[in-house]
Amino acid sequence: MLYFSKLRVILIFIFTLFFILIASLNFLKTDNKYFNKKINLGLDLLGGSYLLLEIDDEPVIQQKLQNMTTVLRNYFKEQNINIIDLKLIDQTISFKVDSPDKEQVIKNFRDEKSEINPYYQSFKMHQFNLDEFNDGFQVTLSKQGLIELNISSQDQAIEIVRRRIDEIGTNDPNILKRGNNRILVELPGLDDPLRIKSLLGKTANLSFRFVTNDNADAFGVEKLKYENGIDEEIVSKRIVLSGENLLDAQPKMDNQTNETVVSFSLDRVGAKRFGKATSTGIGKQLAIVLDGKIISAPVIRDVIAGGSGQISGGFTFQTATDLALLLRSGALPAPLNIIEERTVGPDLGQDSINDGVISLAIGFLLVMLFMFLKYKIFGLISNITLIINIFMLLGILTIFESTLTLPGIAGIILTVGMAVDANIIIFERVKEELKIEKNPILAFDSGYTKSRTSIIDANITTILAAMVLFFLGSGPVKGFALTLSFGILTTLFSVYFISRLLTAIYVFSNKDKPKLI
């Protein structure tokens, strides 16, 4: 147990030195992409923004029911069932059918294999409820249908929120679900929270529609205002092109007008529609509408058949960049409302760092002092191992570019205690072996061997608990679990390789002393 081959000694040295060098990257400035890894600081240490967003599901529910009215009309038409007075009012679809067709309608809705009303086998429930009302029917979303719709819109919203935040380049954002209709966003080190709020607060529904000269009360048109809130135009409700057909959008400078614009490119279907619309609409104004407001309404001068174009509207480069970002990331399924906002200032974050470092230093020094007073030279070996252990832990966190939070620092402090605990178990076991074994080499060898099972068992149970915390916890709990898990791994390595190697060197060099420990 105390014997180390030369190859093993070299491997231990290289392995240890590697992680120490990686840990040192946190204190160095380098532009090399391979050596530019650092530990990220969490919201509680670096400062930043905390936003709790709530999804307004009303538009999603309304759109789902609106689509359902179209499905009902087309489906029953194919079934030769005549629907009368089909309408949608207050999230309820109502319609009438001839008496002989009522049973067929009920069967189509309540059959588990229904083509128009999905059945959730696990909940024994359909997506829509069908109720007979007077001489007709009413269709509403079921409880499970609402839940499934909320979950779907939440998943889609999280993906789009993540895209928007990633485009800005925020360090290690934390984006989590909260219930069925809320999203938690933590953004460490955020310099411009107002910009993030603006980006997340926009649905980014883009559409291209023709400006008309019709009266505002005419069928199929509506009056929309420009972004300045003053000017307005009457535009057709018919959408020529939507944001779904957008492939890419980028800010750029127009060399002819010397203004900032947003250039965009369309997919094959979008390019075909755009080409047809511009060929038939030469001389007309094409309104570019974002979230119900007109950005600009340029006059079509020529056919645009290449599947690309540009949006102008008196943008600054920042507003053009943000608009391009919104268009690239896609439209949110529903509006997001900020219901809670907290900002952690960098000064408070620095205070947390200082307090964490001080607590770590005090705990570290007290442990080292105890070990030295209790075990003398072997306490010194434990202290050297402990320092190396901390550097190795920082090295692993650096490789994965993990986020360090205040609870994460608590995990490091706990690692310090657990690391010396393993050494104490070993040295106390060695003392017991020295009482019955006169050869110190055999006594130390036996001490390490017989204590190994207890140490490994104790650390395995701790790492299992840490894994549960990591997978079931969130935010700060995950930070604690992460540093504790990595700390246990580095502790086992440092105790059974580094500390044992240093102990072996000392024991073999002083094997003739009457009392080693």
Structural commentary:
The model has no long low-confidence stretch (mean pLDDT 86). The protein is of the alpha+beta class and 517 residues long. A 4-stranded antiparallel sheet has the order 9-10-2-20. A 4-stranded antiparallel sheet has the order 3-4-8-7. Strands 14-11-17-18 form a 4-stranded antiparallel sheet. Helix 1 (6-24) packs across helix 10 and helix 9 packs antiparallel against helix 10 (377-399). It contains 13 helices and 21 strands. The radius of gyration is 34 Å and the shape is elongated. It folds into 3 domains: 6-45 and 345-509, Multidrug efflux transporter AcrB transmembrane fold; 58-146; 207-313, Gyrase A, domain 2 (2-Layer Sandwich), CATH 3.30.1360.200. Helices cover 51% and strands 22% of the residues. Strand 9 and strand 10 (182-188) form a beta hairpin. The protein has helices spanning 6-24, 43-46, 58-78, 102-110, 143-168, 193-200, 268-280, 317-329, 346-375, 377-399, 406-436, 440-472, 476-509, and strands at 40-41, 48-55, 83-89, 92-97, 119-120, 125-126, 128-133, 136-141, 174-178, 182-188, 206-210, 221-225, 232-236, 241-242, 246-254, 259-266, 286-290, 293-296, 308-315, 336-344, 403-404.
